[in-house]
Design brief:
about 500 residues, mainly alpha, two-stranded antiparallel ribbon, 6 strands
Length: about 500
């Protein structure tokens, strides 16, 4: 197994490191949902077909899924700050491409670059683990991990406001400017991580993982359009399974694997990743259906006929709740363990969907239910990296958190497919147009609540939280010696 290699002189970290990394994470997360309000208008704005327009979301999912674990592994080996800067540069380039063109091919290319930048979040978590003193690690990674949900909740209303008041290219120019600001801030404030993982980069393993993920996610995201029993869909599922089995066999035999499957198969890691997939599913349902539901016309007898801006603002209180609750989650994890925090999060999300199920005719109760779901998501997203970090070696932090972020993305992809299928098949005619029935939305809430409950079950099977040792251990690092608690390093040392 690769060992952690300390490098570099002793330099104290700036107090601005965490705010800068969190800001980078939020900018990247905003990119994931930025085009959602734009999608219905893309055909008339670009002349593209609705199917091609859908690729503006699908391509970010694919590139994010592929590049997040890969760039995390590269960061562990060659420098996390260096890879972080490259990711932000790619994000900025993708934003510029989208800002200067209305050609659907260029827009899809730009969105592919934006999706690849999702690796910023696990890289930031890894830098925090390497750079900060022990007492600041949990609250800092809680904030960094929560940016994935915070940015998604903020991105929708911001994009809606831009769509209502400005040329649609404006939001891409703004994202390019934010990307440049991120680059400057990281260059000036964030130090290079002191911990490196030894070994050679696993190119063949990377290619195998890429083929497996692309095939799987294409089948999930396009299955509804192609037909779930069509040759293309079944072929992609079958091909992904075959490549995945060959890839797994190869990874178990290579000396420096892209993904250490022996570590990933440990119950502490495997069940955490299963919970991440289920939490990602439950979170994304809240984001996908809230805006559409309140925009449904009043002729449906459940829709509120809200504007695009109002529908986006429905998710804003949830984003603010996530900001407020990330330090609370860190305190829960510190006091009772991240396993307890994740179990609590799953319960809160379930309660949120119960509220949504019974209060789907009132705007304020819809907002309240969506905010409760977002609150549970904040606690979950804050606890997940803490669970990962206590179960993997220090030198594999970015790669392991990249894999965990990937599992959230797979959960979101599955949720998108389920939501699309339910809303397309449970319809009726209201006011001269076809619309989803109220039961379609209620079914989605039930499925999402079921995913949250399944995450709770997976969490309960995790190894029990162990109390942290009061006496910190010390390891060599960029700043000389760095105090690290047992919860952050015990698993890595034993590995």
């Amino acid at each position: 197994m690769p060992s952690a290699i300390p490098a570099g002189p002793a330099v104290p970290p700036s107090r601005f490191v965490v705010p800068v990394l969190a800001f980078c994470g939020m900018v990247v997360a905003v990119m994931q949902t930025l085009v959602v309000p734009l999608l219905p208008h893309v055909p008339e704005l670009t002349g593209a077909s609705p199917g091609a327009a859908g690729w503006l979301v699908t391509i970010t999912l694919l590139t994010g899924a592929v590049f997040t674990p890969v760039l995390g592994r590269i960061g562990d080996m060659y420098g996390k700050r260096r890879v972080l800067l490259a990711s932000l540069g790619v994000l900025t380039l993708g934003s510029v491409l989208c800002a200067v063109s209305s050609d659907i091919g260029i827009l899809i290319t730009g969105r592919a670059f934006q999706g690849a930048a999702l690796a910023v979040i696990p890289l930031g978590i890894s830098i925090i683990r390497d750079e900060l003193p022990a007492e600041r690690i949990l609250p800092s990674i809680a904030l960094m991990s929560s940016t994935l949900g915070i940015g998604a909740a903020i991105g929708l209303p911001v994009a809606a406001v831009v769509m209502e008041n400005f040329d649609w290219h404006t939001m891409f120019w703004a994202s390019a400017a934010l990307g440049l600001l991120d680059l400057v801030l990281v260059l000036r404030i964030v130090p290079e991580s002191p911990v490196r993982s030894a070994g050679r980069f696993d190119l063949l393993g990377t290619l195998g993982l890429t083929v497996c993920l692309v095939g799987l996610l294409l089948a999930i995201t396009q299955g509804a359009d192609w037909g779930w029993t069509s040759g293309r869909t079944l072929g992609l599922f079958g091909g992904s399974l075959a490549v995945g089995l060959l890839w797994g066999r190869y990874e178990l035999r290579t000396r420096s694997p892209m993904v250490d499957l022996r570590v990933s198969a440990r119950p502490a890691v495997l069940l955490t990743n299963v919970a991440a997939l289920l939490i990602g599913f439950a979170f994304y349902a809240n984001s996908l259906v809230t805006g559409q539901m309140v925009q449904e016309p009043t002729s449906t007898e459940y829709g509120l006929g809200a504007s695009l801006v109002v529908s986006g603002l429905c998710l804003l209180p949830g984003g603010l709740a996530m900001v407020a609750l990330s330090p609370v989650s860190a305190r829960i994890s510190a006091a009772y363990g991240p396993r307890t925090a994740l179990a609590l999060a799953a319960v809160v999300m379930t309660v949120g969907y119960v509220i949504r199920f019974f209060t789907s005719h009132s705007l304020w109760m819809i907002v309240a239910g969506a905010t409760v779901v977002a609150s549970g998501t904040a606690i979950a997203y804050s606890a997940l990296p803490a669970l990962v970090m206590r179960a993997v070696p220090v030198g594999e932090t970015a790669a392991a958190n990249g894999l965990n972020t990937l599992m959230r993305s797979v959960g979101q992809a599955c949720c998108s497919a389920v939501v699309a299928a339910v809303l397309a098949h449970l319809t009726f005619v209201a006011g001269g147009r076809t619309a989803p029935t109220l039961h379609a939305y209620l079914l989605i809430f039930l499925v999402a609540a079921g995913a949250a409950l399944a995450a709770l079950v997976a969490t309960l099977f995790l190894p029990s939280d162990r109390p942290a040792r009061t006496a910190p251990r010390r390891r060599a690092g960029r700043r000389g010696t760095v105090a690290v608690t047992a919860t952050a390093t015990a698993a890595g040392e034993s590995a």
